[in-house]
Write a structure and sequence with these properties.
Layout: E1 3-7, H1 12-22, E2 27-29, E3 40-43, E4 59-62, H2 68-73, E5 82-83, H3 88-106, H4 109-117, E6 133-137, H5 143-153, E7 156-161, E8 170-174, H6 179-183, E9 188-191, H7 205-208, E10 215-219, H8 228-237, E11 240-245, E12 265-267, H9 277-292
Parallel strand pairs: 1-2, 1-3, 3-4, 4-5, 6-7, 6-9, 7-8, 9-10, 10-11, 11-12
The structure holds NADPH dihydro-nicotinamide-adenine-dinucleotide phosphate.
């Protein structure tokens, strides 16, 4: 019987219960003393030294899709594969959040709310989705699903990724050289990239200067993708109409940060796609059982790419 160590900072009881139900042939523990001979670890941001103490560790399962904190911490022993979270719940949650924010801006809901508070009845120009240019940065588990759904609604949708994609209704742009073209004249720019050395600070002033006047930036990737001052300057100059931000360089966002009080910034507290233990455990269990039957692990982080 192989052992699974659950090394989380919250919700541990729920994860233990669900993992024990999904993997009855395994021993699932949370206690550090019992975990020493665990073959698998389920982690978020493990405390220093916790993973190094697991002498028989074979695989690390991350409960997060973004693994930059895990990689930067250096806590995962060399040679141990890291599996990132890529479950149904994350994809569904992200789809809901991006559609909610995209449609709210597409149909001017925030502007009408402001008009309402001033007693103003003033219809604004209302475009059809087919006439709205939307670009999604990242076309993987989350971005691919989001781009497909936006295209299905009718948005004029482009997606940018490292390698070309075939997503129905979506124009695929791939590679560094294609980035300016992919975002050129975008009216809604949605970031769903992973944070890697290649994507950090990608959304800077020169790049963002390429979007359409009055564009809306929607960031649910990571805060470090965005140069904060560039976003503030572009909002002030009117190039950007709004920035809808779920993720930040420092979380919680410090009270002194200008994003809090800028009229063009709309904040959600890193809730676009929280990990749901039920769907996450189902994904881990399926992957783990196939691995034990001899199949290759799915969603293994490529350390050379950082995602
Ligand atoms: P995936 O690994 O499935 O997809 C990543 C996508 O980004 C791929 O299409 C990949 O291209 C592309 N990409 C990566 N690096 C580059 C690059 N240098 N140039 C061009 N394209 C690149 O990740 P997920 O979709 O599962 O998650 C994406 C990110 O979303 C996470 O890393 C995390 O930061 C964020 N996230 C945020 C949440 C929130 O609540 N705000 C919740 C969950 C995730 P290719 O396909 O060619 O490899």
């Amino acid at each position: 019987m192989k052992k699974i160590a659950v090394l989380l900072r919250s919700n541990t009881e729920e994860w233990l219960r669900l993992l024990r139900a999904a993997l009855p042939q395994h021993i699932v523990v949370a206690d550090a003393a019992e975990a020493a001979d665990a073959a698998y670890a389920v982690v978020g941001k493990p405390a220093p030294g916790v993973l190094a103490a697991l002498r028989e560790l074979q695989v690390v399962f991350s409960v997060n899709a973004g693994v930059e904190a895990l990689l930067e911490s250096g806590e995962v022993p060399g040679g141990i594969p890291i599996v990132r979270m890529a479950d149904a719940g994350l994809a569904e949650g992200m789809l809901e959040w991006v559609l909610a924010t995209t449609l709210a801006w597409h149909r001017n809901l925030f502007a009408y709310r402001e008009q309402q508070l001033q007693g103003i009845w003033a219809p604004l120009p209302e475009a059809l989705a087919r006439d709205r240019r939307v670009t999604v940065l990242g076309a993987g588990h989350l971005g691919g699903r989001v781009a497909a759904a936006l295209a299905q609604i009718g948005f004029n949708t482009r997606a940018w990724s490292r390698t070309p994609k075939q997503i129905p209704g979506v124009v695929s742009w791939a590679g560094d050289a294609a980035l300016p073209g992919a975002i050129q004249d975008a009216e809604i720019l949605i970031n769903l990239l992973p944070l890697t050395p290649a994507t950090e600070n990608l959304l800077d002033a020169p790049l963002l200067a390429g979007v359409a006047p009055n564009a809306v930036l929607i960031n649910a990737g990571r805060g470090r993708h965005v140069v904060d001052q560039a976003v503030l300057d572009l909002l002030d100059s009117g190039r950007l109409r709004a920035a809808v931000l779920d993720v930040f360089r420092e979380e919680p966002l410090p009270q002194t940060h200008p994003f809090w009080r800028h009229p063009g910034v709309y904040i959600t507290p890193h809730v676009a796609a929280p990990t749901h233990a039920s769907t996450a455990v189902a994904a881990i269990a399926e992957n783990l059982l196939k691995f034990e039957s001899g199949a290759a692990l799915r969603h293994v982080v490529d350390l050379s790419r950082g995602y």
